[in-house]
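The protein record filed here:
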Amino acid sequence: MLIYIIAIVALVTMGIAFKMYPIFPMMEKTTKKYNFLENYSSPSVAPNTPTCVRRSADAQALLAMFPQCNDDFNSPSEDAMNRIELKHILNKLTCIDADVANSGISGYNTLNLKYNTSHDTEPITNFIGRCLNGGTRTRDIDLIMAKYETRGNDLIAKISSFKHTDPTKAYEHFRAVIKTTYKSLITNCTITRASLDIPPGVRDPGYTVPFSIETLAPFARTMD
């Protein structure tokens, strides 16, 4: 009798297992999906296409003045390429501002932005890393921002000439974006860091000498 009961339980268990089998792969996919979408704040999940321009009204206004062309993707016109590059510059300037302002805590927006010799002095993430570690000086910032400003103004002049429009308003918007990014860099990249080796002042968290040993004489060994 016991053998029959064991056989029946085994058959029921196998039936349930075969019935539930199609659901298991779906559960696995669902688990992987939710694990993949876990939003950890690290550079590895930084957005592939940053939208930092949303933080700047002037950048958005400039992009609205020069929208992207509907040219053939394989053979775009010079005007279309100029508009694309101007959009990249605006995106880079606003992403630099975003990364420096939040110290990279929420991920580096500049991580996936491509290097372009026409307006980049160095890869942006390298510069952001040096900035946040106190490795930049005012001259470094001036050189980098000057190249962005020169190239941006050149692109605005070319696009405006092609459209036969007055570039004055566009220059104003671009100058405002440059000014905001420059101020953020100067504020966050050139601050004096605390030094634990040679404290510059009484408020610096450097070394202190206890009063109990401050006036002790040098150790001297005496011979008997």
Q: What stands out?
A: Helices lie at 2-20, 23-36, 57-65, 78-101, 124-132, 138-163, 168-189.
